[in-house]
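Sanity check record (used in CI):
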Amino acid sequence: MHAMDNAEVLRIRNDFPVLDQLVNGKPLIYLDSGATSQNPLSVIEAEQEYYEQRNAAVHRGAHHLAVEATEVFEDARQTVADFIGAQYEETVWTSNATEGLNLISYALSNAALWAAQGRGGSALKDLAIGPGDEIVVTEMEHHANLIPWQELAFRTGATLKYIPVTDQGTLRLDAAADIVGERTKLLAFTHASNVLGTINPVAELVAMARRVGALVVLDACQSVPHMAVDVKDLDVDFAVFSGHKMLAPTGVGVLYGKQDLLDVMPPFLTGGSMITTVTMERAEYLPAPQRFEAGTQRISQAVALATAVNYLTETGIDRIHAWETALGQRLVKGLESIDGIRVVGPASGAERIGLAAFDVAGVHAHDVGQFLDDRGIAVRVGHHCAQPLHRRLGLTATTRASTYLYNTTDDVDAFLDAVSGVRAYFQA
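Expected output for Cysteine desulfurase:
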């Protein structure tokens, strides 16, 4: 396996038409892939080709187009399942990772009601959450992996607890060992922080949950697009990620769940295509994955996501991870050398994904973002859907630069050069 270099990345960049443009008269430097990645031509063409050649409702027709649409839709599911080491039956299409997390939350809050009425069998009783139970998250979570659990606690009477972070942006594992206890029914945490860049110790956290029989939910939005993730090796019960962060269109995401759990969970959305028998009084539901896919699905987006997965696989996900790791270290080391810059998360030299969020003394993050945009550099500003984490860090907002396989070291250096002039420009 040969390492990626700038020459290869420049060739890769040619596959992404949106990157070939000027912004405010400057060549676009896109450093906001942590929010939304760009799409290669092959992905754009895959979605277009679907509409041009085989657009039809899946699972619902015997005519030629419907059969072809169903085949490519389900082939896409298998491709994505293989990418994360899952089984076909364990891979559920969602609109995004947020929907996947809400699906789990609502299913678990309905588990007690179903079990009380004898629906779902004895296995469902183990999933029921109620008063006296505890749900554990972390202080670094994206709102999408926090608010659904707040609401689950509210609906069920359970208690929500969280694992705190250190000043260096890592989890307090000593505290976690005490927080994850006999009352814990669910532990939800991010694989990699979208603000700190921290890669969390999945094995240690899963071991804590297993000791007390708790379910594990992994937010893999910032890991699956950037590094090899095998859900079976990680031994998580559920995982979610979004297509738009991994070269695919918006509007499609994935929920992975262990099959024995998915097959007994109450469905989140109900309607057509996810049922076996319906009377005027009640319905019986299909097993997963169709159990959670009511109505017309995001067919073209799923096909395009599979194409994106193939693009990442052909490039080499381990090669991409190594390249982004180097870019991330270059970002942090460079930012640390600029006066008045505070980088949040692990310091240079410590493991992190290819992003860095920072505060500029005396200059609001939104002004920093505008300053960089004037120079053709796209970054993210604000609280990045992580207000509690920013509050813990004593900040209201940060500026975040995030890399992907189409970024060069020159992109990072141009960004660092621009940031070095921010305080002087604003006389801070």
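The CA atoms of residues 356 and 401 lie 6 Å apart. If this sentence no longer matches the regenerated tokens, the check is flagged for review.
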